[in-house]
Design goal:
- This protein has 770 residues and is an alpha+beta fold.
- The chain has five domains: 247 residues, 3-hydroxy-3-methylglutaryl-coenzyme A Reductase, Chain A, domain 2 (Alpha-Beta Complex); 105 residues, Alpha-Beta Plaits (2-Layer Sandwich); 45 residues, no CATH class; 164 residues, Ribosomal Protein S5, domain 2 (2-Layer Sandwich); 135 residues, GHMP kinase, C-terminal domain (Alpha-Beta Plaits, 2-Layer Sandwich), CATH 3.30.70.890.
- 44% of the residues lie in helices and 20% in strands.
- The chain has 27 helices and 21 strands.
- The strands form five sheets. Strands 11, 12, 13, 14, 15, 16 and 17 form a seven-stranded mixed β-sheet that branches.
- Strand 1 and strand 2 form a beta hairpin.
- The longest helix has 29 residues.
């Protein structure tokens, strides 16, 4: 009954008749729609809100073809944005090929919060409140006996202690968990919170301040799933695998980047909000809860997950808090709301929430599929290239390199991808990351000879103090940025496919960003400003994550230019020019990043007119885990913050820098003598000093605590701080690195295990001498 062929081609009157014929409308609702009597009139509107002067209408459309938990639904949608209704109906039709949507939900629990302040003994208050939990719940339920009779009411109570910046100490917050059944429940829960406030106040021996519901309804969850076979995905000139892989890659973007996730999730809410408006629910509360849920981890992220099934099908999942209602005055005062609920035919608020979950997943699928297919049609070939490379059977260790080279070739064909895989397999294998030791039996990164490279880096000890003439100890890691330069006919073309960059280099000062300024500085310094060329960058170091990405980019580019134009640069010339680029990127750099990127050796470093760059011999392998927050770390900003604080309190900060310097010098000995427990303790102390300088962040602190909990001997931020990355030192047991990596990934972060030392020195970075 939810399928009405060519519904969009009918007139409005014909559509109403068709819906009536399907049994979705009663005779009374049919007459109301035909006559227009279903719309809200001014007199009714005047009773709903204050200062009414008129009524604004919005279109009511039907989302067709929905099959949810084996039942057909025609879904009423109130929305002004074109294409949403059509996109949902199309997505629902595609989903039927895999059996439709499967949705489950939890009990409709709403949380009421009671804030207690000026509590003399918060822990004692918590214990007392929990001991008298039943008394508080019974009092709350006595205020709404009819709700209890329907199977709802207050079900449980939780007590949380939260920090407060006031003089009254920590606050105690009581969560009253209320099953509101088919009601939205806001007024009901607020009444309960008001009613038990005095009792809570007496038990806690404090003062109750706020008592109100929470719109983060994470006790009323909806989980929607869908499976879409490959043949149902094909269309618009693309096969099913291309569309599937494109959707998965686009969703991966939204899972790690808040800027993309905000638009991604807005698309989900396009569908859910339309159902909420149609059924008289508070779409603002639903939005607030959804976005709060999306931001619960280390960063704001996608609400959906799209993955590949064992049979190759596209699998989608949406998990979202949804607390809605189907009864109550606000819903029944608008005649269109009542009609829409009858048309939808849901029997409970939970069923309505499940329909909303399916609609949200359908809208997300439709939006992302459109972006993926239109993006390919517009010439942005990265998604297409990845699917072609996968079809060519490229192994993981060369996958990204083949993708980049395939795009550069302009031949997005399987035969070309196989040709590139074969050529890489015959090339010499270079270990990217001088001074590092590859994991036994693990495939080494493969680097094609034409690619020049710069190393990534980690600072074991000495951040920020190194800017003020103190020592730092740093090591390269098996990450790099690679560059390939070739002569061209016109201008300077920059290609960084993995970052979505494909542009001409800006030479006009008013259009230049720091990236353009650095590139122009390099070209002018090397006398190449009038040369036409194409520069292809392959980043393996994440941007702005404290791992030396800007220095590695500069070094790789300089070496690529050196190779292409046969300039005969030595390492010190590369290093000095990269240092000038670092000044543009960071303002007052110490020079450690460009030195590590150029030479690829573990070193003890001190800045100055004649900088100290003493190589450190690491006789035994040292296992580390890099935790990457995904929050960009702008070194220039944190360096400037420390400089401002140091200028305001010079004696205090000089003392901190001296303490860090002492830790560094002791750490060099510990590293050389393989005294890992000592080195770990030095790292922990150094982190405390860095935190005191306010260059840490809660994401970094969370990763550090996770690493220590899982067995790290020491953990600290690395680089500028303010975001970026941490390093965790592991014991030599062979098990801890994997455990830390897993824990960090489970918490929503990226993680990478690396090993430094163990073979008495480093190797030449790919494409340049050391």
């Amino acid at each position: 009954m939810a399928r009405i062929p060519k519904f969009y081609k009918l007139s409005v009157t014909e559509r109403v008749r068709a819906v009536r014929k399907q049994g979705l409308l009663s005779n009374q609702d049919y007459q109301a729609l035909v006559s227009g009597e279903h719309t809200l009139n001014v007199d009714s509107a005047d009773k709903m809100i204050e200062n009414v002067i008129g009524v604004m209408g919005l279109p009511v459309g039907l989302g067709l073809n929905f099959l949810i938990n084996g039942r057909e639904y025609a879904v009423p949608l109130v929305v002004e944005e074109p294409s949403i209704v059509a996109a949902l109906s199309s997505a629902a039709k595609v989903a039927r090929a895999g059996g439709g949507f499967e949705v489950e939900s939890t009990e409709p629990i709403l949380i009421g919060q009671i804030q207690v302040v000026d509590v003399p003994h918060p822990q004692r208050a918590r214990a007392a409140l929990l001991q008298r939990k039943d008394e508080i719940i019974n009092l709350a339920n006595s205020l709404h006996p009819n709700m209890v009779a329907r199977g709802g009411g207050a079900k449980d109570l939780e007590v949380h202690i939260l920090p407060s910046s006031g003089q009254g100490g920590d606050m105690v917050v009581v969560h009253l968990l209320v099953d509101t059944r088919d009601a939205m429940g806001a007024n009901l829960v607020n009444t309960m919170c008001e009613g038990v406030a005095s009792l809570v106040e007496n038990i806690a021996e404090g003062k109750v301040f706020l008592r109100i519901l929470s719109n983060l309804t994470d006790r009323a969850m909806v989980r929607a799933k869908v499976r879409i076979p490959l043949d149902a995905l094909a269309g618009k000139g693309f096969d099913g695998e291309q569309v599937r892989d494109g959707i998965i890659l686009a969703n991966e973007f939204a899972s790690i980047d808040p800027y993309r996730a905000a638009t991604h999730n807005k698309g989900i809410m396009n569908g859910i909000d339309a159902v909420a408006l149609a059924t008289g629910n508070d779409w603002r509360a639903i939005e607030a809860g959804a976005h709060a849920w999306a931001a619960r981890g280390s960063h704001y992220a996608s609400l959906t997950q799209w993955t590949k099934g064992e049979d190759g099908a596209l699998l989608g999942q949406l998990e979202i808090p949804l607390k809605v209602g189907t009864v109550g005055g606000p819903l029944q005062s608008n005649p269109t709301v009542g009609m829409n609920l009858r048309l939808l035919g849901v029997k409970s608020a939970r069923e309505l929430a499940e329909v909303m979950g399916a609609v949200g997943l359908a809208q997300n699928f439709s939006a992302v599929r459109a972006l993926v297919t239109e993006g390919i049609q517009q010439g942005h070939m990265t998604l297409h290239a990845r699917s072609v490379v996968a079809a060519a059977g490229a192994p993981p260790e060369v996958f990204d390199t083949v993708v980049d080279r395939l795009i550069a070739s302009g031949e997005i064909k399987i035969w070309k991808a196989r040709e590139l895989v074969a050529s890489l397999a015959t090339d010499e294998v270079h270990a990217v990351g001088s001074g590092s030791r590859e994991t036994p039996n693990a495939p080494a990164p493969v680097v094609a000879p034409p690619m020049a490279a710069g190393h990534g880096k980690i600072i074991l000890l000495g951040e920020h103090a190194v800017v003020y003439g103190r020592h730092a100890v740093a090591a390269p890691v098996p990450l790099a940025i690679q560059a390939h330069v070739e002569k061209a006919r016109d201008g300077v073309q920059m290609m960084i496919p993995r970052w979505g960059v494909e542009q001409r280099l800006h030479t006009r000062a008013e259009k230049q960003h720091s990236f353009d300024k650095s590139m122009n500085l390099i070209l002018e310094s090397l006398g190449l400003q009038d040369q036409a060329m194409r520069i292809e960058i392959v980043p393996k170091v994440p941007r702005a994550m404290g791992l030396g990405g800007s220095a590695a980019l500069a070094v790789a580019t300089i070496r690529g230019l050196d190779r292409c134009f046969e300039l005969g640069l030595d390492d010190e010339q590369v290093n000095q020019l990269a240092f000038e680029c670092e000044k543009i990127a960071h303002g007052t750099p110490s020079g450690i990043d460009n030195t590590l990127s150029t030479y690829g050796r573990a070193i003890l470093f001190r800045a100055g007119d004649e900088p100290l760059r003493r190589e450190i011999a690491i006789p035994e392998p040292v296992d580390l885990v890099i935790g990457i927050s995904g929050i960009e770390s702008l070194t220039a900003a944190t360096v400037a913050r420390v400089r401002k604080a140091r200028d305001a309190h010079p004696a205090l900060y000089e003392g901190i820098f001296d303490q860090i310097d002492a830790l560094v010098l002791r750490g060099v000995d510990a590293l050389a003598n393989h005294e890992l427990e000592t080195l770990g303790e030095l790292m922990n102390v150094c982190q405390g000093l860095l935190n005191a300088m306010q260059v840490s962040s809660w994401e970094l602190e969370e990763m550090i605590q996770i690493a220590r909990r899982e067995g790290a001997l020491g953990a600290k931020l690395t680089g500028g701080g303010g975001g970026g990355s941490i390093i965790a030192l592991c014991p030599s047991d062979g098990e801890t690195p994997a455990r830390i990596e897993t824990a960090l990934k489970n918490a929503g972060y990226q993680a990478l295990g690396v090993t430094i030392g163990g073979h008495g020195g480093g190797s030449d970075p790919a494409g340049g001498g050391a």
